[in-house]
Amino acid sequence: MNLGKYSSYPLPAGVRRSFGVETAGQLADQLGVKGEITDELAREADAAYSAYTRGDTAAAREFLTTKLGVDGAVADDALAKLAAS
After folding, report:
1. How confident is the model at residue 3 (pLDDT cuts 50, 70, 90)?
2. Are 70 and 64 in contact (CB under 8 A)?
3. CA nearest 50: which of 68, 63, 38, 37?
4. pTM for this one?
């Protein structure tokens, strides 16, 4: 994925702990994210993470799979890993 200016975006502490990465670029590589990020997509990512922190895992999974092209099983594993931290 081409993250452009978002490649070095610092991740929330829980995400950093769960995945052992510091930046959005590192996490995208680990999850196999596809495509190119835009300002709108970055806002959607923030909204999906906020929804996740409020307990809406379905919104986070949908974002990962439909917007970022992450395989469903990988998305499920990522959400489980995040929940375990």
Report:
1. confident
2. yes
3. 63
4. 0.85
C-alpha distances out from residue 22 to 4, 34, 73, Å? 16, 19, 23
Q: What is the mean pLDDT of the chain?
A: 92
Q: Please report the DSSP string for 28-70 in residue order.
A: HHHHT--SB--HHHHHHHHHHHHHHHTT-HHHHHHIIIIIS--
* Size of the chain in residues: 85
At residue 30 the predicted structure's pLDDT band, cuts being 50, 70 and 90, is very high
**CB half-sphere exposure, 26, CA atoms < 13 A:** 13
C-alpha 85/C-alpha 81 separation (Å) is 7
For the chain, count helices (H), then strands (E).
Answer: 5, 0
**63: exposed, middle or buried (Cβ count in 10 Å: 0-12, 13-18, 19+):** buried
